[in-house]
Design goal:
The complex is a heterotrimer of chains A (191), B (201) and C (204). Chain A is an all-alpha fold. In chain A, 73% of the residues lie in helices and 0% in strands. Chain B has two helices and eight strands. The chains are: A mainly alpha (191), B alpha+beta (201), C mainly alpha (204).
């Protein structure tokens, strides 16, 4: 039951993009079309879940038992870089069309603060294994939700008459602000 | 040196130097960080169990710790419960103190919260919220008085005041404290709050 | 490309190539920690520490690192300095370390830092890289200062914790919320573009 509320909270109440401000670069950069946004979101969710699992294992089986907490940052980021490489190679072998579709998004995921943020937050909140995995999947889906919503809005915005200085990042951020405001309505849902 | 060997040497060297540097800094700051943590807890215990000279951790579970506050003569003068729970927006971390017989709450202190600024965040305000928790009777579960009243005298012995505009945050704090009180009483009854100096419970 | 003077190398980071307002990098921390000026300054200083030292180190050893392992090496070097900054803050400035939470370790994925190594430090002398890093750092701190000042003054009526708005002022709570951060940054980006185009018009 606790896992379900954690899952819902990760998507709506503490949305990674609109509450934690993580993943802004891809959020602004890849949200111009709905299908690419969706692909990015899924790729991120996949990497996030893997990262959640591996970072938990490294933290609880190596770093904490041997008092190596100070290596947390470097080990997490190296794990993420390695995972992204592996995922890229794996997808290229298993499904070349999928690889074509995701194309350049995959390497970009390494510097996506959302992935590193996930590993750090799960460690900070001291979640057990199950909670970490649920947190990973939920946060990834929350990211996907935010980026797809943004893409939907931006596809419409393209047809609107936006003042010159606001075009691109400016209006996208303002839209994000309104979305964030809307999502605040989800607070207090969780008991 | 061929390329592969060179790559390995470079990566290993960078890794070793960086690792050592981080290890050194880690060692140097470790004690200080632990000390900061301890001082923070001790300051909070002093606030909710006034007159505490030393404190002892009597019961520790994930996310629920009970400290015993002792005065200068080593006598137990109260318990401090440190726990956290879901708030309106994110986790609320708090500590409250009781007398040794768990008949009343000395006071409540909010340690960490991420509630809405200007509204839910008022749970950290002494005048608007926390003072109504002083000396509350814990015979039965505490309840929340809504709408908020002006003065302490209007509240029953086990009632606390809500914050106008932040009833949910107030309510979340209330549930955390009520649940913790129950747990504290159960643990004490089960005889698990034994001090190291074999004080009477 | 004509060689820039040291002064120009520094100045470009403040406006022309300001990491936040013009290059649109490092937005995660910019939005996350600018709810109060003190947080913005702390984050700015920590990031500068990492950026400056990483740039100097990377530039010093650029000839020794084979191209295939350069990103991995940069990441390890950057992570080392981030860890140092993080531990240092947790030990000596615990309340700020707590308010900044996971955002200090997140400096390791701040695109400004890795971006600078790839684009500049790996191809320039140590001296130039140092100046470039100083410029980018100043630009980043300026961006954080502007955003956090607006958010704190309008959102809480204070600046660095001191009341600056009179009692008549009802704080705009939205400024402290995530929504306020997004909207303010969006408007600032637009303002930057307007200023940029106006100065361009004057030059031509």
């Amino acid at each position: 039951m606790e896992l379900i509320t954690l899952f819902i909270a990760a998507i709506l109440v503490n949305n990674f993009v609109l509450y934690y401000f993580l993943g802004i670069c891809p959020f602004l950069g890849v949200s111009k079309k709905i299908d690419s946004a969706f692909s990015m979101g899924l790729a991120v969710t996949f990497v996030m879940t893997l990262t959640a699992v591996v970072s938990w294992m490294i933290n609880h089986w190596i770093l904490i038992p041997y008092n190596l907490d100070y290596l947390q940052i470097v080990s997490f980021i190296l794990v993420i870089a390695a995972l992204v490489q592996l995922v890229e190679m794996f997808i290229r072998k298993i499904s070349p069309p999928l690889y074509q579709a995701l194309g350049i998004y995959l390497p970009l995921i390494t510097t996506n603060c959302a992935i590193m943020g996930l590993a750090l937050l799960a460690a900070l909140k001291d979640y057990g294994f199950a909670k970490t995995v649920v947190f990973g999947v939920g946060s990834g889906l929350g990211f996907t939700l935010a980026i797809v919503l943004m893409a939907g809005i931006r596809e419409q915005l393209d047809l609107a008459d936006v003042p010159e200085p606001l075009k691109g990042a400016g209006i996208a951020l303002i839209v994000a602000g309104i979305m964030a405001l809307a999502f605040t309505g989800f607070s207090g849902m969780i008991n | 040196m061929n390329l592969s060997a060179r790559m390995i040497v470079v990566l290993t060297t960078v890794g070793l130097i960086s690792g050592s540097l981080m290890a050194v800094v880690g060692m140097l700051t470790k004690d200080r960080i632990a000390l900061n943590r301890q001082q923070e807890i001790e300051a909070a215990i002093l606030e909710v169990v006034p007159g505490t000279d030393t404190s002892e951790e009597l019961f520790a579970e994930k996310n629920f710790t009970i400290y015993g506050g002792k005065n200068r003569d080593g006598n137990l003068i109260g318990y401090a419960v440190y726990t956290s729970g879901t708030g309106f927006q994110d986790i609320i971390s708090l500590m409250f103190g009781t007398d040794p017989n768990i008949t009343k709450i000395n006071s409540l202190s909010i340690l960490e919260q991420k509630e809405t600024p200007g509204l839910g965040a008022k749970i950290t305000d002494k005048e608007l919220f926390l003072k109504f928790w002083d000396n509350k009777n814990t015979g039965s579960a505490l309840s929340l008085r809504k709408p908020a009243v002006r003065s302490q005298d209007e509240l029953a012995a086990n009632e606390v005041n809500t914050i106008t505009g932040a009833t949910i945050s107030s309510d979340k704090v209330l549930s955390i404290v009520n649940q913790s009180l129950e747990k504290l009483k159960q643990i004490k009854q089960a005889g698990k709050l034994i001090s190291e100096d074999n004080d009477a419970e | 490309m004509p060689s820039k003077s040291a002064g120009a190398e520094y100045i470009k980071g403040l406006w022309e190539e300001n990491p936040v307002f013009r290059q649109l990098l490092g937005m995660c921390p910019t939005l996350a920690v600018t709810n109060a000026v003190i947080n913005g300054i702390a984050m700015g200083l920590a990031t500068s520490f990492v950026l400056i030292l990483s740039s100097v180190v990377v530039s010093s050893i650029k000839k020794l690192i084979p191209s295939q392992v350069r990103i991995a090496s940069y990441i390890v070097i950057i992570a080392t300095f981030v860890t140092i900054a993080d531990r240092f803050m947790a030990a000596f400035f615990p309340p700020i370390s707590k308010s900044l939470g996971p955002y200090i370790p997140l400096i390791v994925v701040n695109c400004i830092i890795l971006g600078r190594q790839e684009a500049f430090s790996s191809k320039n002398s140590v001296g130039r890289s140092l100046v470039d890093a100083l410029g980018m750092s100043t630009g980043f701190i300026l961006a954080l200062l502007v955003l956090s000042s607006i958010r704190e003054i309008l959102g809480m009526g204070t600046f660095l914790g001191h009341q600056v708005m009179g009692a008549w002022f009802k704080p705009w709570i939205i400024m402290i919320l995530p929504a306020g951060a997004f909207i303010t940054l969006g408007i600032l980006l637009a303002v930057a573009l307007v200023i940029e185009s106006k100065t361009k018009k004057r030059k031509t």
